[in-house]
Amino acid sequence: MKRLGLIGKKLGHSFSARYFAEKFEREGLAGEYDYSLYELPQIKAVEDFISSMDSLVGFNVTIPYKQQIIPYLDELSQEAGNIGAVNCVKIMADGRRVGYNTDVEGIRLSLNKLLGEYTPDAALVLGTGGASQAVQYVLAERDIPYQIVSRDMAKGNLTYDDISPEVMATHQLIINTTPVGMYPNVEEAPRLDYSLLTPAHYLFDLVYNPTTTRFMELGAKQGARTLSGLDMLYAQAEAAWAIWQES
After folding, report:
1. Where are the beta strands (DSSP E) in the chain?
2. Peptide bond into 41 cis (omega under 30)
3. Catalytic residue among 66, 90, 113, 221
4. How far apart are CA 57 and CA 158, in angstroms?
5. What are phi and psi of 32, to 5 degrees?
6. Which pLDDT belongs to residue 153?
7. DSSP assignment of 180-201, as one string?
């Protein structure tokens, strides 16, 4: 049986195994492929994970290892190299480990769905991890200026304390790339003044469990248009599957 999976530090929130189990059942591949979740306490455990896993075809990578995985790979796709983050690894027939970023496919699809033809004046990107890197890449593709918001002054353009009413008014798109609000901490939301949101705002939360996050709820109450990370999850998964199927 060919093996696939997801590595991350904590995976209780993940829908990926269920998604692929349903896909394999639907497509008559249930006896041919297995997709499982693998919690790794630290990234260096990936070496034992790969060496101990027979018939490993590839795996996805999630928080907090999308950037940390890179030194353990032999090669990056051009896009993954440009982004500086990997969420999909393919194990080649000769054992080489090649990193890709399929998050960008999901982000492109999601922003098209949320924004349509509209181009906001600017965006706020909450967070600085691997998912943030992919979001920044897609925003640059769409010529949408952005500022990065971080709790750490050294990592972003702004801290949460710097988000003034003027900043909120001039950044109509707000994208949460952090795990804040993710199951099981569903009552949490990024630290913003949600009363400053308006129907002119668009909120995209990369979190998909729950499918409606507190961030989205608070935005919708102010009339903002919102989108969860579920479409992104499905799109990046299908893009990863296509990579694993390439000869």
Report:
1. 2-8, 33-39, 58-61, 75-76, 88-91, 97-100, 123-126, 146-149, 173-176, 202-205, 225-227
2. no
3. 66
4. 41
5. -105, -30
6. 81
7. TT-TT-TT---S--GGG--TT-
Q: Cα separation of 225 and 134, whole Å?
A: 22
Average pLDDT of the residues in 111-118:
97
Span 64-83, pLDDT tens digits: 999 999 999 999 999 999 99
Which residue type occupies 188? E
Residue with tokens 């995976």: 11
175 touches 135 (CB < 8 A):
yes
* 171 token code pair: 């950044």
CB 26 within 8 A of CB 7: no
Whether 85 and 103 have beta carbons less than 8 Å apart is answered as yes
Tens digits of residue pLDDT in 174-233: 999 999 999 999 999 999 999 999 999 999 999 999 999 999 999 999 999 999 999 999
What backbone torsions phi and psi does residue 221 show, to the nearest 5 degrees? -60, -25
Q: What is the DSSP letter of 42?
A: S
Residue 23: which H helix or E strand, with range? helix 16-26
Active site residue 221: no
pLDDT at 156: 84
Nearest to 4 by CA among 247, 242, 241, 246: 241
Please tell me the distance from the alpha carbon of residue 130 to that of residue 63, in angstroms, as a whole number: 8
- Rounded to an integer, what distance in angstroms lies between the CA atom of residue 135 and that of residue 175? 8
Kindly indicate the confidence band of residue 154, based on its pLDDT and cuts at 50, 70 and 90: confident
Q: Which of 169, 103, 90 is nearest to 135 (CA)?
A: 103
Gap between the Cα atoms of 238 and 247, Å rounded: 16
